[in-house]
Amino acid sequence: MPRKTSPHWGFALTELLMIPGPIEISPAVRRAMEVAVPSHTSTAVIEAHGRALRRMRQVWLADDDAQPFVLPGSGTLAMEVAVHNTVAVGDVVLVVNTGYFSDRIAEMARRRGATVHELTVSPGSAPTAEQLEEAFTRHRPAVVLATHVDTSTGVRIDPAPICALAREVGALTIFDGVCATAGERFEMGALGADVYLTASQKAIGLPPGLALLVASARALERRERLGDAVPMVFDWQRWRPVMQAYEAGGAAYFSTPATLLILALDVALGELVDEGMNAVFERHQACADAMREAWRELGLQPLGDPAVAANTLSALRYPDGVGPELIAQIRAHGVVVAGGLYPGLQQSYFRVGHMGYSTTQPEQIETTIEAVRRAVLSTRS
Ligand SMILES: *Cc1c(COP(=O)(O)O)cnc(C)c1O
To answer: Among 19, 76, 312, which residue has the most ligand 1 atoms within 8 Å of its CB, making it the best to mutate?
Structure first.
């Protein structure tokens, strides 16, 4: 952990960042960016970019014919790209709505001109198999949008039944994995999912700045019927030749890639591939179990149903008589956590991220638990 004073900013960057993104990053990823800014046609970027694309297929557990995209941008941009390349005006879209970011992608589909139906569950719960079946039978969607882990409630949905039902009606499935990818088990190829997207500042373990998506062959094919109705900067057909060129060991230009972040991406994905995705998912599970045990001992109640709780973050109700001031008290012990996000419930709970590098560092997890413990105990005295 860099706990030095920045000569430029003049203050010590000593806080431990335990929010659901951005997160703490590994020393190797940080070192990868400590170079002069490279050109997008430099050997370093060509090699790193090509390898990063291949490594994305491994981290996403995607088929060989799936296309990874690395775009300058955010998670929201990745969502917009996925919607614009798969949804045509007038398409019937089903949104499995588990919270804040499902609302966002539903709005994107509406703006795209789709007929949007939402299967909205109560905050902190996931849809049942019966609810999903009923929604698919009733609406027969062309595209299904779902949030793998809802960052506002800490709920993880099971993508398998959604993919199975989608196949029956010929629908494409798009999963927002921004709070899940590389933290929660997701085998894109085996599931038959069509787009799985994330952003660099979540469990992948980079600073903010990259939108990352993998699209299945089916999804790429669906793009064809849209003609030039896709805004250029979102368009797979503009970006795909660039990705193919880098993967083939060359460079191509459409819009300048985030060259420094691409060097870091190659290193971050390399760490995941070296560890093995199974081990990565199990590490997040073990860390989340330890966190949940600590919260139970402190008497902190989860916001949602424990049966569908994510491994990448905890959403915890404030103890009785305590409110958002708890966040400042935790921060006084050196740890940054996040407030509530679900519309209408923001004041009733807080969120602790536990994804990526911190889950490899037991002392960071202990520091976080200890900061929460001391803050909670101080409210009782
Ligand atoms: C963080 C997050 C986003 C938004 O990502 P930005 O990079 O902030 O645009 C979208 N979906 C989910 C599930 C997220 O956790």
So the answer is: 76
